[in-house]
């Protein structure tokens, strides 16, 4: 069953759960229930905080709005992708979802809707080793080479060490596709590109 939280219920749940009735706490905690929060709650929290009518952390409104938007997005993905994993796998393909940036907290949701490959793995935004350790048996990982820091700005020796270290961690046990976190740009020195290729070919 789906439930939509009112703003005051959301705030009580975070700060004063004892103000909620036993029945409401049961509904929220029930794993068979899907609890939603409207993006309007984020706006309401911001307005009341600005007017001095609500004491709340400055980032709470943004977090509430983010949570609400992600709930809507995830529900959309669940509907759209309901049958895609089975169909793709029947064609010999891997269900994967391209999602840049830090998506660590969303990975369990990706797995739940059938995603089999995380694309890309961005070391600037996520802990690649931690993700490999926690989800390496459930997801194929793609990417990981730092195209925003080391590859464009480091020396060939630094790039070589970076790629060697990543391959050692991410290729352990299989389930890894060696690649850049995003496509290489024209400012990447040629010697750095050659260093990547040499390490990958001889690892």
Characterization of the model:
The chain folds into two domains: 2-80, no CATH class; 84-202. It is built from ten helices and six strands. The chain has helices at 7-15, 22-29, 39-50, 60-80, 84-90, 107-112, 128-135, 150-153, 156-170, 190-202; strands at 2-5, 34-37, 96-98, 117-121, 140-143, 176-177. Helix 3 runs antiparallel to helix 4 (60-80) and helix 9 packs parallel to helix 10. It is elongated. The N and C termini lie far apart (51 Å). The mean pLDDT is 81.
Structural class: alpha/beta
Task: Give the strand tally.
Answer: 6
Large-scale geometry: elongated
How many separate domains make up the residues? 2
What is the C-alpha radius of gyration, as a whole number of Å?
A: 22 Å
Number of helices: 10
Outline the biggest β-sheet: 4 strands, parallel
Mean pLDDT: 81
Strands side by side in the biggest sheet: 3-4-5-6
Low-confidence stretches: none
Order of helices and strands: EHHEHHHEHEHEHHEH
Helix content: 40-55%
Could you give the distance between the termini? Answer: 51 Å
**Residue fraction in strands:** 5-15%
């Amino acid at each position: 069953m789906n439930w939509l939280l009112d703003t005051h219920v959301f705030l009580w749940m975070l700060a004063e759960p004892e103000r909620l009735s036993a029945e409401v706490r049961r509904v929220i905690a029930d794993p068979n229930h899907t609890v939603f929060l409207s993006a309007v709650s984020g706006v309401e929290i911001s307005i009341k905080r600005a007017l001095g009518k609500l004491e709340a952390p400055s980032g709470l409104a943004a977090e509430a709005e983010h949570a609400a938007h992600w709930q809507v997005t995830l529900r959309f993905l669940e509907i759209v992708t309901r049958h895609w994993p089975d169909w793709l796998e029947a064609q010999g393909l891997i269900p994967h979802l391209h999602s840049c940036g830090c998506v660590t907290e969303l990975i369990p949701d990706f797995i739940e809707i059938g995603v089999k490959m995380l694309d890309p793995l961005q070391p600037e935004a996520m802990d690649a080793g931690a993700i490999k350790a926690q989800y390496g048996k459930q997801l194929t990982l793609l990417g990981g080479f730092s195209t925003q820091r080391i590859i464009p700005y480091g020396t060939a020796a630094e790039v070589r060490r970076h790629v060697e270290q990543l391959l050692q961690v991410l290729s352990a046990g299989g389930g890894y596709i060696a690649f850049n976190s995003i496509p290489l740009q024209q400012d990447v020195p040629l010697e750095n590109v050659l260093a990547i290729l040499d390490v990958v070919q001889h690892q």
